[in-house]
Amino acid sequence: MKVFKKIKEIKSYLGEQIKQGMTIGFVPTMGYLHEGHLSLIRYAAKDNDIVVVSVFVNPTQFGPGEDLEKYPRDLDRDIRLAQQAGATVLFTPEVEEMYPNGYKTYVEVEQITGTLCGASRPGHFRGVTTVVSKLFNIINPNRAYFGQKDAQQSIVIKRMVKDLNMDIEIIVCPIVRESDGLAMSSRNVYLNKDEREQAVVLSQSLFMAKEMIQNGEKDALKIKKAIIKMIKEKPLADIDYVSIVDIETLTDVSEINNKVLIALAVRFGKTRLIDNIMAEGK
Asked: How confident is the model at residue 83 (pLDDT cuts 50, 70, 90)?
């Protein structure tokens, strides 16, 4: 596996591969890889000749008081795991390489970034779309792979790619969960024993909500209240939001007739966890 830190060098290398007709699959990450990331790399390896994985903790998507400095990092481990999963190229730029002195340009998707995580993390998606658009320009992939766990992010990226006429196929892959149902996340490492035990309520509440819909419940408010009630039974849980939204516009729905996204964000101690599930009304 080749490892690059400089934009000029990776662009040169991948440019030669593209000239030879190679297809490129791209998996952008912030590192501290877990099975969710590795599943994306495996999907990419099945579809493409070359698999590029980026490891870059992007400062522009963190707000004041968030965990930028504490975000877990272990590059040697990431290199080993990425290679084992099928990555052929790793891109690990420094912040100064991606945002040199005098940097002034940002990419922003409107409306759908103001709900869910965007409501409580202002500026977050501006940072996400900026860094992803830069990475797309650097890597020039045929396909890019994202996880369903970050559902809003995937929807926002798809909108950006469509609106800016980027010739990239966005592939969203299923959530990978721990054996007890907790969605895998690099931030799970922050949880203490009690927090970890109680955090499983997130997936449990989502599975319950989907079952309610499958059994014919259409009242979104009733379902939302049931989720909140279940989560609040865990004393360490502090709800940021619970929302049931249209899968394209991300606006709240009152009656569930079509496919919806049920999404939530909950803090356990200082750790903010997100999870979601898709469901379709009968």
From this structure: very high
